[in-house]
Each structure stands twice: as structure tokens, then as C-alpha cells.
Amino acid sequence: MRRVSVFGATGSIGVNTLDLIGRRPGAFQVVALSGGRNVKLLAQQARQFNAEIAVTAHEDCLEELREALAGAGTEVAAGKDALIEAALRPADWVMSAIVGAAGLAPGFAALSQGTTLALANKESLVTAGPLLLAEAQKHGARILPVDSEHSAVFQALVGEDYAAVERVIITASGGAFRDWPLEKLKEATVAQASTHPNWAMGQRITIDSASMFNKAMELIETKEFFGFPPEMIEAVVHPESMIHALVGFKDGALMAHLGAPDMRHAIGYALNWPEREDLPVKRLDLVEIGKLTFRKADEARFPALRLAREVMATGGTAGAAFNAAKEAALDAFIAEEIGFLDMGALVTAVLTEMSARHGLGKPLENLDMVYQTDATARALARQVIPSLRT
Ligand code: NAD
Ligand code: MG
């Protein structure tokens, strides 16, 4: 039996991961499960999978978790340190699916025990890519991408020589507002931004899809994970979300990865790697689909993509500053403190200011540099927010 842990078990990715694990009784033993305030679900998952330990991120939720798991034989714990301790428990496979920069530390810790880390938490690569890859190498650990685009690129590259790659194209559904004119985007509400035309995901990544910040993160993620130079990486809008990414080679061949927009494709590929197993996903009927369409990703309407180019060119601490500013902008938008288009303006302002005051290209030496940059960017964002209120 393979020992597996799932961080962010109660979220969209976590629930899908446990769905796949649950379909193969006897194949996996669940070590650690983590969640946030959704204690009821976490406890139910821990009982169902007979987890060794269940961890809530919030110390004020510990008692509730303890009560919910009374008599279950599952240990309980709470807080950031507890998450790290749980990530250090020996496991063959660890899913990193906490949302936001908070997912970095547990994933990093898991690498130090030489495990296979299935990485859904894109913030880890955006904020600390080089540190993460170095940590994996140091401990003989492996990182498998779970973001659908990166799983697709990874699969298109199996058996290929990286030196023969000419370009990488990741697709973007375009999110909730792909057909909205700029004027209308100003008025977009949180509820409107929180519905996705193709994918069912957590609220934060759904809003990031509407603003294209998700695609911006994924461009940076592609550069960090695969090591291709930024000029080889592009995003194309593909409203049907059937092709997840394409890899172009120097002979002109373009290898595309197709699949239904269901995250269990990418999660299952990472879970079963290097084998393939049956997955409960819809098979594409090409005749029924009829045609696939593509359009240019519009940088004027979505400044996030332009910012991603700047971050990739700058490197170093720029990724951590970008992600923290983006998280702060998203918090402010969800709290209705700023408008939809203000998110791009806020991130631009924070990056400009940080670059002027601190410089952003300093190579990352340790996680502390990431955390410090993150804290500075969030504080700066709080200062800028009042000036954006309209
Ligand atoms: P979600 O909001 O549905 O779930 C997030 C999980 O993280 C929950 O278990 C929550 O309790 C936990 N969590 C939240 N804040 C936390 C904190 N401060 N400390 C510890 N735990 C915390 O999110 P999701 O959509 O499942 O996304 C998870 C990650 O996977 C994100 O990084 C996202 O960008 C990435 N991702 C998601 C999808 C998708 O389809 N949902 C696709 C690609 C990548
Ligand atoms: Mg994605």
C-alpha cells in the first residue's frame, strides 16, 4: 500500500484527490489530511479514510476537530507548525493543494523526506521555484505538476529531449469575462467573477481565471518548473478548455494534450505516475465537439499577462512580490474594497514601488527571503488600497 497525505484535503483539489484514492480500496493508506475551518468535512474525510492524523490550519478549530474525531483513532493537531510536522511524516506521495502562499511551507517540508510531491499549489513555484527544485534535488524527491496545463506539458514531454523544444503554449479558457468589453469589466461583481464557464474550482482560482491572474501565475510556473526561457512560453485563449497545453519542437511538430475539463485527469496522472490507471473522467467525443477555437490573449484587457512577463524577466524575489500583491488584491476585491480592474492596478503599483525601493531581482537564497518579500508586498498593498477606492 502506498502511503499518501493530502494537504488542502477539504478544497476542490483535495476532494477530487480523495475521490480518486477512495476508488481504489487497498491501494493507498492515508497518513495526513489537512483543512481549514471546514472541520466537519475534514473529520468526515479522516474517518472515511482512517487517516493517521488530521490537521486544521486554525488553532481555534482544534477543539471542534478533536470532538468531531473522538473515538476515531485519528490524531488531531492545529496550526502552521502542525502542518509542517504532518508533512514530515513519512509518505510515498503528498498532494500539495492548500490555496495561496500558505501552501509553500508544508510542500517544502514534504520534499525534505524525499517524497513524490504532487504540486497543485502553483504559488509554491511562483514564489520560490528555484528553492523548491533545489530542495527536491537535495533529497532525491520528485515534483509532479498538477495544474492541468503543466500536467499536459509534462505528458507531452515524456521521452522527448528538452533541447528540441521550440515553444510551449498553455491554453486559457478566458474565465467568466472572456467576452466582456473593458467598460463592463469595471463593474464586474464578486459573484459574477466567482463562476467559471468550464471548470469547477475553489473561489480564489476562479476569480483569478476571470482576471487572467491565474494564467499569469501559470506562465511563471511554466518557466520555473520546466526551465524554458520566457520567450518560448505563451498563453492562448481556447474557450472550450479541451486542449490544456501544446509543446512545439524544432521540427515544427506540435504535441497537444486533450482531455475533458476535469481536474481528476491531472490529479490522477500524478497519483498513478509513472503508470496510467483508469480514471472516472469523461472521454472526449471529437465529432460531437466538432471544432476547437483559439484567440489571442488580450494584454490590454488583462494586464496580468504583461505583469507575468515582467516577473519572469526579473526573477528572484519578483515572483513572491507578485503573488503576495495578487493575493492582497484578491482579498480586497472579495471584501468589496476595490473593483475588479483595480486588482491589476494594485499589483502594478506594488511591483513598481517595490522595485524602486528594494529592487526585485535578488536571487532567492532561502525561504525567509520569500516570506519577507511576501510581507512587504502585502503591507504595501494595504497602503495603496485606499487610493484605489472609487
Ligand atoms: P480551495 O479554496 O477549494 O481549497 C483550499 C484548501 O486549502 C482547503 O482545504 C482550505 O481549508 C485550505 N486552506 C485555505 N487557506 C489555508 C491556510 N491559510 N493554511 C492552510 N490551509 C488553508 O482551493 P482549490 O481550488 O482546491 O485550489 C488549491 C490549490 O490548487 C491552489 O493553489 C490553486 O491555485 C491550485 N489549483 C487548483 C485547481 C482547481 O481546479 N481547483 C486547478 C489548478 C491549480
Ligand atoms: Mg491551470
What does this structure look like?
The structure is a single chain. With about 400 residues, the chain is an alpha/beta fold. It has three domains: about 1-145, Rossmann fold (3-Layer(aba) Sandwich); about 150-295, no CATH class; about 315-390, Orthogonal Bundle (Rna Polymerase Sigma Factor, Chain: A), CATH 1.10.1740.10. The chain contains 17 helices and twelve strands. The chain has a seven-stranded parallel sheet, sandwiched between helices. A five-stranded mixed sheet has the order 11-10-8-9-12, with helices on one face. The longest helix is centred in the C-terminal third of the chain and has 22 residues, at about 365-390. The protein starts with a strand and ends with a helix. It binds nicotinamide-adenine-dinucleotide and magnesium ion. Magnesium ion binds near residues 147, 148, 149 and 218. The site of nicotinamide-adenine-dinucleotide has 28 residues, from helix 1, helix 6 and helix 10. One of its GO terms (biological process) is isopentenyl diphosphate biosynthetic process, methylerythritol 4-phosphate pathway involved in terpenoid biosynthetic process.
What's a quick, concise take on this entry?
This protein is of the alpha/beta class and 390 residues long.
Estimated helix fraction: 40-55%
Taken from the alpha-carbon principal axes, the silhouette is globular
Please, how many domains?
3
**Biggest beta sheet attributes:** 7 strands, parallel
- What class would the helix/strand composition place it in? alpha/beta
Any low-confidence stretches, pLDDT <50, length ≥5? none
Q: What does the radius of gyration come to? A: 20 Å
Element-level helix/strand string: EHEHEHEHEHEHEHEHHHHEEEHHEHHHH
| Number of DSSP helical runs | 17
What fraction strand?
Answer: 15-25%
Give the total of beta strands.
12
